[in-house]
Design a protein that fits this description.
The chain has a single domain, classed as Ferritin (Up-down Bundle). It is built from seven helices and no strands. By secondary structure, it is mainly alpha-helical. It is about 70% helix and about 0% strand.
């Protein structure tokens, strides 16, 4: 797979996840804590898409990204499933469960890896924007305080405590 194509696909997936989170913002905006969680998550996902689109312009058309291509297609399936399920979300617990699935996918890790592979073409730390998993999990844990299902909170806390490798 060409690196430009991988970056375009990653950007599109980040935007789609951002739209899911924005949908949750609209659904839960009457609760300021929960609404802020979803707003910030959506904003960050759209920011990731913007970075990937900028970086795409720096990549030679023939450049290959080798091992990342096949991994992207499983992400497409995950995001598509979550998009369909998000349309039926009627509780914060269900929204959080979908966010857990999305946040534990390889989406940000692959974005980080592609940017990191570009080395000196980007400013130092450019790939760090894709390692904000802790911030996302903290927001989700805060929102999870509003649901009676402690299982969801424990899953989020485990994600927060777990390794975050790219």
């Amino acid at each position: 797979m060409k690196t430009q194509d991988a970056l375009s696909l990653l950007a599109a997936l980040e935007e789609r996840v951002g739209r899911i989170y924005f949908q949750f913002f609209c659904l839960f905006r009457e609760d300021p804590v929960v609404a802020r969680c979803w707003w910030e998550m959506a904003r960050e996902e759209h920011g990731h898409a913007g970075i990937l689109k900028m970086v795409r312009e720096l990549v030679a058309p023939a450049e290959e990204c080798r091992e990342i291509g096949p991994r992207l297609w499983s992400l497409v399936e995950t995001v598509e499933r979550c998009e369909h399920q998000a349309l039926e979300v009627d509780s914060l617990t269900r929204a959080l469960e979908l966010a857990i699935r999305l946040e534990s996918s390889e989406l940000d890790a692959l974005g980080h890896r592609v940017l990191q592979s570009m080395g000196t073409k980007l400013p130092e730390g450019a790939a760090q924007h894709f390692l904000a998993t802790d911030a996302h999990c903290r927001r989700l844990v805060e929102a999870a305080e509003k649901v009676p299902d402690r299982r969801v909170r424990r899953r989020l806390e485990a994600m927060l405590a777990g390794p975050h490798e790219a």
